[in-house]
Amino acid sequence: MSKAIQAVRGMNDLLPDVCERWQHVEATAREVLHAYGYREIRLPVIEKSELFARSIGSLTDIVEKEMYSFEDRSGENLTLRPEGTAGCVRAGIENGFLHNQIQRLWYAGPMFRHERPQKGRYRQFHQIGVEAFGIESPDLDAEIIMMCARLWRALGLDGLTLQLNSLGTLECRMAYRSELVRYFESQRGKLDEDSLRRLDKNPLRILDSKNPAMQDVIAAAPSLMEHLDDASRAHFTKLGDYLRQAGIAITINPRLVRGLDYYTRTVFEWTTDRLGAQSAVCAGGRYDGLVEQLGGKPAPAAGFAVGMERLVELMALQGDKHPGTHPDAFVVLLGEAAEKQGLALAERLRNAGLRIECNCGGGGLKAQLKRADRSGARLALLLGDDEVRNASVTIKDLRDGTQRSIAQSELIDLLHKETSRGITP
Ligand code: ATP
Ligand code: MG
Predict the structure, then answer these.
(1) Cβ(254)–Cβ(225) below 8 Å
(2) Domains contained in the chain, CATH given
């Protein structure tokens, strides 16, 4: 036997049991997003590398060391998308749906980052993302945060904390930057290699360091909050008011700068203490300058992305109950006459909106009942010579083993009663 090939490190197969949990989260998220008027957009997984350098920022972890970039056969520099915002803005400019318009959009799909794989951190991971364009006022920031809160409620999740900060405008960030550089210069001896490199080029990024040894120096650094311009301060205050009115508890975290350069004013993260080091389940903020930075006419914007793997893991830890996708009934076919009629019978039941798994490939009663058990169906429908002759079916309840015979003409009504589903699609 030749050696079996394994999946790429950090890229996971999601097996059917796990997929059912994902489908539940995805379906719930879709409902919540649609309840706020957000519409789906589907974007390519590959973009030109330059798009990410120009939007995420060339001195961020993502662009410096995490991107899957390659040259394609025609020599173009391309990258597997590490996040969704850049592509969404690119699409908006290209298709002309941003200028002077309000757009509320969402997307879902895989993202790729060459990170060190560990629990909650993978090389292919999945996000549900939201981007809203054309609204400058903090009611929008409040809306997207309230939408997150509704999603947690709809999923039955508790214990998520909203961390909130304001990065102000680009101008006030520059003033803050000089003070920050002065501070970190005075602490040079305590800075790690990454931070020393960032000190000249992008000192705010030091605040985003994940190095535990750096956390004390970072905690004592001057706070951006004290440098906010008046308009940004007013924006932040109003956002706080909206959230309090909505009953959403806020933790202001002045060190929250986020891993991407394009944010302005509001930034936020939803975190949990149940997932160890990978504590952020959702992150986002406002990025009023990005559309222009990518070559479009200026348009304010805000958005967030939910990390699906972390969210699903959190659901699993809480012992979530999700509806499976198992069939309502399994059709057991015994003998030639039954096999002849079986596929057609199963089709009639499916026409009535039922989920039916039909035995294929023959087999004795015992083997077929084993398959029926494994299918997850609660009922087995037995069709043998007698049943064919009488136009009946024997129904076996696979949980308690009871059995009864009914006319085929009554089968659909009975199955609709017996299964919680069975609504005609
Ligand atoms: P972290 O600080 O954990 O590295 P990030 O700030 O890089 O996260 P974002 O780019 O804001 O993350 O992405 C939004 C969300 O996507 C995160 O809050 C997280 O839930 C999820 N996420 C990010 N990177 C990964 C990854 N490598 N594996 C799994 N989920 C991820
Ligand atoms: Mg990261």
Answers:
(1) yes
(2) 16-168+228-317 (3.30.930.10), 329-420 (3.40.50.800)
